[in-house]
Give the backbone structure.
Amino acid sequence: MINFTIQRSLVLLAVISLSACSSNSGSETRNNQTNGFEEPQASSVTPQSDASPDNGGIEFLRIKHHMVECEGYDVGHCLLAQKEGSDEWTYFYDQIEGFDYQWGTDYEILVQVQTIDTGLADTSDQQYSLLEVITEIAHDANASFNYTSRNSHERIVEIAPGQFSLLGNKAFTCTEVSCGALRSTLDQNQSAVLSFQHNLNPTEPLVLDAVLCSDAAQSFAASCL
C-alpha cells in the first residue's frame, strides 16, 4: 500500500512538472511572436524629406533696361524679361542670385534654374542663379520710356524739392513743369503713366519728362492703358 501511494505521488509530480514546462513554453512562444511582430513595425518608420532641390536646366534671358511695378504679397519692382524664342516681355518676379542689375542697361544672361520645395503656399518653387552675363549694353539716355504707376499718391513720394522716389527704391528728378504736373496727379490721388529718361550715369536718378496720362484708379485702365 505504501509503495502504491509513493508511485501515485511520483506520477502526480511528473504531471505537474510537465504542465509547468508546457505553460512556460507557450508563454515564451507568445512573447517571441509578439516581439517578432512589433520590432519590424517600429523599425519600418523612416523620416521623409522633400527639401532636397532637383537639378534644373539652363535658361537664356533678355532683361530690359527698366523695371516695372508688380504686385505679389506687396507692391514692388519686377524685371521685364524675355525668354529665348519669345518676343513677349513678361514680369519676372523671382530674384536672380549673383545678378547685379542696373537701371539703364539691357542684358542678355544665362541662368541656372532649380526647382525647390519651399514648403510655403503661393511661393515660387523656382530658384535662379546667374551663370554668365553675355551682353551688357547701356540704353540710350536720350530715349524715353513709359512707366505705369497705379495709386501714385501711395507709391511716389517727394523726398526733396524736385526729387521723388518710386516705391522707395528708385529716385527721379523733374523740371518745374513736369514736377507741377506730377504734384497735381498725386494731390488728386490718381494713377499715372509717366515718361522717363535714364541719366547718363545709370547710378544717378531718372529724369521725368512728362506725365503722359492720369486718372482716378477706377477709370485709369480705360483712359490711359
